[in-house]
Amino acid sequence: MKLNNNNLLKTGSYINGEWVNSESGGTFDVFNPYDNSLIAKVSDCGQKETKDAINAAADAFKIWKNYSAGERSKLLRKWYDLQIENIDDLATILTYEQGKPLEESKGEIKYGASFVEWFSEEARRIYGDIIPGHEQNKRIVVLKQPIGVVAAITPWNFPNSMITRKLAPALAVGCTCVLKPAKLTPLSANALVVLAEEAGIPKGVINVVHGHKASVIGKELTENPIVKKLSFTGSTEIGKLLMAQCAGTVKKLSLELGGNAPFIVFKDADIHKAVEGAIASKYRNAGQTCVCSNRIFVQSEIYDQFNTKFREELLKLKMGNGMDKDVKIGPLIDTKAISSVEAFVEDAIEKGAKVICGGKRNTENENIYEPTILSNVDTNMKVFKEEIFGPIAPVFKFDTEDEVIQKANDTPYGLASYFYGNNNAQIWRVAEALEYGIVGINTGLISTTVAPFGGIKESGFGREGSKYGVEDYIEIKYLCMEI
Ligand code: ADP
Q1: Which helix (DSSP H) or strand (DSSP E) does residue 2 occupy?
Q2: Hey, what long-range contacts does 244-253 have (CB within 8 A, 24 or more apart)?
Q3: Is 120 exposed, middle or buried, given 0-12, 13-18 or 19+ CB atoms closer than 10 A?
Q4: Is the dihedral of CA 326, 96, 364, 295 positive or negative?
Q5: Average pLDDT for residues 38-65, to the nearest whole number?
Q6: How far is CA 255 from the centre of its chain?
Q7: Most ligand 1 atoms within 8 A of CB, residue of 157, 233, 238, 256 to mutate
Q8: Nearest atom (ligand 1) to Cα of 217
Q9: Are 271 and 442 in contact (CB under 8 A)?
Q10: Which residues line ligand 1 (CB under 6 A)?
Q11: Mean pLDDT for the stretch of residues 56-84
Q12: Ligand 1 closest atom vs CA 238
C-alpha cells in the first residue's frame, strides 16, 4: 500500500494517548478482500485493555467536559481539516481493507469528515432552556450535560464514517469515548486517531480497542458501570444482544441496525431517474450498506420496461479491484458474504425466480459477485424477508398503492425506504404510510450530515447527524429554584 504519510498506518490499540500492543502479544490478520493478501497484523486486545481504555476515558472526561464549547469546536475543526488534507491516504487505506472502489472511499471520507465539521459547529450550540416557573417564586432552568464515557461499536461496511458520526457528536458535547471498530477494518479507525492526536485532541478522549473476540470487548463495554452509553451500528441480532447486556447498568443506547429497504416505482415515475436511483441505492459498496434497497417494487404497467433499462445500465458497471480506475463494483467483504449472497439467489431460483442478469460470481475474481437482477420473485423468498447485503436486486411486480404499501411495511425493519412517482397527493400519502425512519422520494441517495439518520422498529433508535445528533449524547437536568 503506497501512502504519502506512512504514519497513518498503525497496528496497535490506542489507549490514553499511547499506541499499545495486547498484553498477550497476540495479533490478528487483516486481509485485502480483493486478492486475500495480508495487509497488517493488528494487536489482539481483550478485557484487560478494554478496562484500561474505559478508565482512561473516565479520567479524560473530568477534563474534557470542562473545556469550553469553543475550545472543543476548534479541536474538532482541526481534526476535520486534517482528514480532508489526508483524503487520498485515508481512501487508499479504506479501499485496501474494505474493497470498495477508490472513488467511493473518497466519498466516504468526505462524508465521514462532514460529521466532524458539522459537530464542530454544533458544539457551540448546545443551548439549555428557561421554563416559566409553576409558582410565583419558582424558577426552572434546563441544563444539557454530557452523558460521560461512551462506548462505540462500529461495522466494517463504512470503516470511517460510522466512527466519525458517533465520535464527533460525543466529543462535541463533552463526552469521551472507547471505540471498538470491526476487526475486518481496523486500519481506517487507527488512521483517524492519528489525525485526532495531531489535531491536539487530548489523551484519553478517544480510545480504540482492537480485538478478534468482539464478544469479550463487548461484554466489558456493556457491563462496566463507568460506561454510560453505548452507540452501536451493526446487525439486529448483535444489537439485541448488546441491548440485553446493557440492561444490567441501565445504559443509554443508540442502535443503528439492519434494514430491508423497499424501493417503489409507480407507473407515472420517470423511469430513467428511477433506474439511476435504484443503481445508486442498491449497488453502492456492492450492496453492503444498511440503506441499500433490498426489495424493488415496480407497478405492473412499467415492469418489463423498467427491467430492460435496469439491466442495460447494470451491464455497464465495471467490476474489479477497487484501486483500479472506473471500477464500480468491488469484492464482497469475505467468503462468508459471498456464500450468503449465493444462498439468497439459490433460494429464489428454487422458488421460481428468473435471473435477468448476473446470478453468479465473477469469472476473473471469485471474491466479486456480479450485479444481479431477479424477476418473478415473491414474498415467500428469502430476498423478500431478509437483508441481502450484496448486489442482488429482486424486482417485485405490484398493481395498487395499497398492495405495495402493505408489502413494503411487511417486515420487522424500518430504516430506509424509497419511492418514485409524480402524483403530489400520492407522494404525501405514501411518504406518510411508509413505516421507516428515512424516505427517499425520487432519489436514491439520502445520506447527509445535515439530516437525522436512523431507523424505527427493529432497525433501532437514536439519530445520527443533524441538530438531533447531539441529543443522543446529552443528559437533561433541570434546576428548580425558589427565590
Ligand atoms: P456485521 O454484519 O456488520 O459484521 P455485526 O453486528 O456482526 O454486523 O458486527 C458489527 C460490530 O459489532 C463489529 O464491530 C463486530 O465486531 C461487533 N460485534 C459482533 N459481535 C459482538 C458482541 N457479541 N459484542 C460486541 N460487539 C460485537
Answers
A1: none
A2: 245/218, 245/219, 246/222, 248/223, 249/222, 249/223, 249/224, 249/225, 251/222, 251/227, 252/147, 252/228, 252/472, 253/229, 253/461, 253/462
A3: buried
A4: negative
A5: 98
A6: 11
A7: 238
A8: 25
A9: no
A10: 153-156, 180, 182-183, 214-215, 218, 234-235, 238, 241-242
A11: 98
A12: 6
How many Å lie between the centroid of ligand 1 and the Cα of residue 362?
A: 28
Q: Which residue has its alpha carbon closest to ligand 1 atom 11?
A: 155
What residues contact 312, with CB distance under 8 A and at least 6 apart? Answer: none
Identify the residue whose C-alpha is closest to ligand 1 atom 19.
214
Q: Please count the other Cβ atoms lying within 10 Å of the Cβ belonging to residue 427.
A: 17
Say what the pLDDT of residue 475 is: 98
For residue 424, the number of C-alpha atoms closer than 13 Å in the C-beta half-sphere is: 0
Amino acid identity of 42?
V
The set of catalytic residues is: 256, 290
Q: How far apart are CA 433 and CA 298, in angstroms?
A: 18
Residue with the three cell numbers 449472497: 341
**pLDDT, tens digit, 9 for 90 and up, residues 410-440:** 999 999 999 999 999 999 999 999 999 999 9
Closest residue CA from atom 23 of ligand 1: 215
d(CA 156, CA 12): 18
Give the distance (Å) from ligand 1 centre to CA of residue 395. Answer: 30
| Ligand 1 center to 289 CA (angstroms) | 15
Q: Taking a C-beta distance cutoff of 8 angstroms, is the pair 412, 313 a contact? A: no
Task: Please give the number of the atom of ligand 1 that sits closest to the Cα of 219.
Answer: 24
Instruction: Give 155 Cα–ligand 1 centroid separation in angstroms.
Output: 7
The mean pLDDT of the chain is 98
Distances (CA, A) of 109 to 16, 212, 379, 389: 25, 25, 37, 21
**Ligand 1 centroid from CA 419, angstroms:** 31
- Tracing cell 475550545 back to the chain, one arrives at 71
